[in-house]
Amino acid sequence: MIGIRATLILMSGLLVFGLSPALPAAAETAPPPKPSVPTPATAEQAPDTFPEPTPRPAPAVASEDDSAEVSGTAPAADGEDVPAEAAEDAGAAAAPAETAATPTEPAATPTEPAAAPTEPAATPTEPAAAPAPVMTSPLVDPPLPVPRPITHLFEDGPFHVFVRIFKQESALELWYSRGGEFKLARTYPICAWSGSLGPKLREGDFQSPEGFYVVDRSQLKPNSDYHRAFNVGYPNAFDKAHDRTGSFLMVHGACASVGCYAMTDPAIEEIYGIVEKALIDGQPGIPVHIFPFRMTEKAFREHPGSQWIGFWRNLKQGYDIFEKTRIPPQASACGKRYGFGEPKSWCKPITGWQTARRAAKKPKFTGTIQRSNDR
Which fold has domain 157-361? Predict the structure, then answer.
């Protein structure tokens, strides 16, 4: 009996000593959940700190209902907002008074704030996904690159070049040949041209020309204010026969036009380089054919009442010859119409400036035979 009683006394003593430190331990374990309260605020800041490493303040409260979770305040009994940390400190201070009577309550109190962060923790997932397109857009949608150069097409010996321009389509075609038919090297978008469909009539009408022209080396302008340029040769013999005036009508860069055909600087850089090389390698003149549109019957039906139908039908004759043969026809001014093929004796060939100047200086045959006095 003595042994049993001693054993009971020893066990009760251990139980007492075991419970007495356990009560304050439960009270001390209440504060640790406090660090979990700022976790939602840190998650809220993640979208701001994602693009920049510098921390930023928490975003403004969206509504009063969310204030207890986002801004860290807890509603007081009298309707005023009290900081959540102060409310917890007050609860912790009051907890020891009730510890002896209800030791299990302080342990249950921190479980409520610990559960609160679970809702805000899910909130940052939506803002965090927003910056992703901003960060990756330069990789998904890069700026349009400059097209691959086509200079390799012109490296194996001499070649000839031909240029076609279409106003309505705002397109410039560059064709090339090493003998025989021409092949399309590239089509360039025209950045700007001025006026409307139809020929240029007079100086200062801000109209881009239409017709058949030839460019030679004297018409190149490498140091143009518009990056690179070549003069198309307006007015030609046909324009002069119609008393049309104008000057400095060019294909150039800088993407601005007051009567010219303006390209982007990268485009004119490539076009000019190829045109210049062809002339240096021996091509006497580069034909430049300028049309109001692609000369199909469907396109003509779209402009039934134009005053330029007759002029355009004349242009279509030269257009059709190239479409059929893939060789640019020799154009001439035959009175007030364009002629094509071998020029007649009464026609003036459309040439570049150098050829025109040489022809102007060439003495004309008067038909009188000079007899020599030498016997």
Answer: L,D-transpeptidase catalytic domain-like (2.40.440)
Q: What is the 3-state secondary structure (H, E, C) of the chain?
A: CHHHHHHHHHHHHHHHHHHHHHHHHHHHCCCCCHHHCCHHHHHHHHHHHCCCCCCCCCCCCCCHHHHHHHCCEEECCCCCEEEHHHHHHHHHHHHHHHHCCCCHHHHHCCHHHHHCCHHHHHCCHHHHHCHHHHHHHHHHCCCCCCCCCCHHHHCCCCCEEEEEEECCCCEEEEEEECCCCCEEEEEEECCEECCCCCCCCCCCCCCCCCEEEEECHHHEECCCCCCCEEECCCCCHHHHHCCCCCCCCEEECCCCCCCCEECCHHHHHHHHHHHHHHHHCCCCCEEEEEECCCCCHHHHHCCCCCCCHHHHHHHHHHHHHHHHHCCCCCEEEECCEEEECCCCCCCEECCCHHHHHHHHHCCCCCCCCCCCCCC
Q: Pick the catalytic residue from 160, 260, 289, 347.
A: 260
Query: Catalytic one among 191, 252, 289, 347?
Result: 252
Catalytic: 255?
A: no
**pTM (whole model) above 0.90:** no
In tens, the pLDDT along 212-241 reads: 999 999 999 999 999 999 999 999 999 999
What pLDDT does 147 receive? 80
* Domain residue limits, the chain: 29-134, 157-361
